[in-house]
Amino acid sequence: MPVVYALLIVVVLFVIVMLARTVRIIPQARAGIVERFGKYKETLPAGLNIVVPFVDKVRYLIDLREQVVSFPPQPVITEDNLVVSIDTVIYFQVTDPIAATYEIANYIQAIEQLTMTTLRNIVGGMDLEETLTSRDQINSGLRGVLDEATGKWGIRVNRVELKGIDPPPSIKDSMEKQMRADREKRATILTAEGGRQAAILTAEGEKQSAILSAEGARESQILRAQADREAAILRAQGEGQAIQTVFQAIHDGQPDQALLAYQYLQMMPKIAQGEANKVWVIPSEITKALEGLGSSVHEIAGIPKQSGGPRTRVDMGTTEPSGLEATTDAALSSADKAVQDAIAEAERSANPGRNSEVAPSIDPSIDPSIDPAIDPAIDPAIDPSSEQSVEPPAHRSDGSDGGTPEVPPAQ
Question: Does domain 66-167 have CATH number 3.30.200.20?
């Protein structure tokens, strides 16, 4: 019995070993290279596979996925004899497991060496500046050469990248200084351009401001001149209307010599005023002087001794006093008193210390215009229709013809 059990156990173990050697499981994205007695027989796909035990053997298991290999930095000499360190990264994929197994012993090492030699060949034809700025050109050249060389190995190079290009430290310092100087130059240029633009804009702004100020001043002067012109026109028109109104009022009133004499007497106090008046001559016969003044004025200005003819009125608005005819008698009654007061005031102004001694006496019987008892109907200034004129004053009893005595100034 023990022999039987032992034999049974041996048979079970043999069966288990046979099954293990016969059934082979290949993972996904893998390929198994089967050799029979040392010779390639077949390639096993992913999944469950059966081989002949002790005859067939899965020699290699090839990874069919894209692989990434990073190579260490390699020293490369540029065209301008500068040594730079370049490290690369290669992306490749096995497309033919049989060629990758039997065409080359170690395709990873072969790719590394090929990459190094190709990189030195490409970078050796460039200077440092071009090497630092031509990464795409170097990548394209590496990929073309590697893809062509590894095609027979059953490998496809998908991409080549340069991880870094490191120049010597002295070159780095020089490059930093150059870069700093270039940046400072550009900053200076930009600052100068900014200052120029600012100056141009400021000048344009000042120009526009000056132009606008000049235009404003011109328009202001034009408006001021127009305002002055209109004001002068209106002032002249007002003065003309005032003169025309006064002239029309004078002609409507038809002044005569009596009115002129009255105005002359009103001006006598004003003539006597002033510190420069040392001597003031008062006519002894005022009526004769007034008659001469009236005759001279109407001879020059065309004023008649007695006016006549139709009278025309000008509408002067509300300023025209109403009831002129009703107040004529009252005005004439106060005219004589006003004349006497004017003469007295003129004498007082000329001789304030001797008013009682040098005041001239005027005979009312000589001047009819001074006598308040004279009938107003004979005064031409009162009755426009009357043609009677005022008689000239009589000669003095002492034979004088109405001279004007000289009054000495006040002491």
Answer: no
